[in-house]
Structures are given as C-alpha cells and as structure tokens.
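Subject: for your reference before the review

Hello V.,

The reviewers asked for a structural picture of the protein, and I figured it would be easier to keep everything in one thread rather than splitting it across files. Below is the amino acid sequence we used in the manuscript, unchanged from the supplementary table.
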Amino acid sequence: MQPPICEICFKRFDPDMEGDLVFFKETEKGREFDRRVREENISGHPPDAVWYCGEHVWEAKMLKHITADEARTILKRRFEASLISAFDGRPREKNLRS
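And here is what came back from the structure prediction:
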C-alpha cells in the first residue's frame, strides 16, 4: 500500500485526520491485481485506488464512477490554478503531468 500522499498536491497527510483513499471504477488492471491478491497472496497498492488530501478528496469522490486515470486528468486540470508556485508564479511541472 502506498503512503497517504495526495495525488494532486503531493501533501503527506494523516488519513485519520483528513483525506481518504478513493476507489475509482474498476479496470482490467484492478481486476488482475485483485485476482493475484486472492490467488497468489500478493500485497501492494490497488491500481484503482488513489490518495487525496482533505482539500481534494470531495472532488475526487464525485468522480469515482470513472477510472482513476480519467479522474486524475480532470482533477489536475481543475486544480491547476492552485498548483502555481508561490515562489516564482510558474506551474510546478511535477504536479501538472498526467
């Protein structure tokens, strides 16, 4: 399982205090992961689940009917303005990649 770091702003957070792990529409990759967990007893982070901090989690939960990749694209575009660096006014490249 990946640690709770927001997919949008990369904030580390305590999920007992804010944010959540959002499960999106199941994909073939997710079904394969679930099968391997059951049959091969593997562990890891589910591919259809993504961490979001308190600032971004509600918007993410509104999109859980689509895939994680589709939601990631929409949410990053939606929150792009809030990802502007306070230091130089330029977007932080890492945050804007899909």
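For the response letter, the relevant points are probably these. The beta strands are 20-23, 49-52. The first helix runs from residue 28 to 40.

Happy to draft the paragraph if you're swamped.

O.
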